[in-house]
Amino acid sequence: xxxxxxxxxxxxxCGCYISEDRQVCSICEKEEFKPYNSKRLHKDKASLWxxxxxxxxxxxxxxxxxxxxxxxxxxxxxxxxxxISNVIIVENLNKFDELKGTLxxxxxxxxxxxxxxxxxxxxxxxxxxxYFTKGLxxxxxxxxxxxxxxxxxxxxxxxxxxxxxxIPAANYISMLSEKQKTILIFKLCGYSHDAIMKTLHLSxxxxxxxxxxxxxIEKTQLIRRMDP
Length: 228
What we know:
By secondary structure, this protein is mainly α. Helices cover 61% and strands 4% of the residues.
C-alpha cells in the first residue's frame, strides 16, 4: 500500500514542493516543475498514516503557527505549508520505531527539524534579494509588516542557537555593531569568510576580531538567560 501526492509538483530550480495548480514557484519565481512521486510507505506505516492523519494535521497546524513569520517571508501560504509537511511526514514515517517513543513525538520532532532545514535552504535567495537591495530598517515589501532587520531574528534562531542553546535573537542583534550585522547577513546568505573579508575590505585580523566579539555576545546572552 502506498500514499501518493498526485497534486504536488517539485520545482526543478530550488526543489521545493508546490501544488499542481500553481504556475510560478513562490520561492525562486521559476516556472519549471516536475511531478513529485512520494516514497512508498511500508504496509504497517501506511496504516499508521491513515489512522493518525487527524493528529498529524494538528501537529502541522502547530508547526505552521510556530513558523508563520518564516513562511510569510518565503510567501508560502498555509495550503503550501500543509503540502510540504505531508511530504516530509510520508518521507520519514518508515523510520518510526515504536520502541523508541510515541508516534506523535516522532512526527513532531521530524517535522520541526525538517522545516528548519527547509527554511534555511529555501530562503537564501530571498535573503540576498532583500538584504542587498534595501536598508535594514526598510519593509520587505509594501504589504509586509516586517523590516529586513526583523527577519534576521527569524533566521538567527536556527543559525546562532546550534552551538549555544536558545538565545533571544532580537536581544543578540541589538548588541551587534552595523558591521557585525552586515557580516551576519553575509554568513546567512552562504558567503565564505574569504568572500566576506574581500567584500567588506577587512583584514584577516579585523574580521576575526569582529567574529570573536560576536561569539562573546552570544555567550553573554546565554549566561544572562541561565542566571536565576
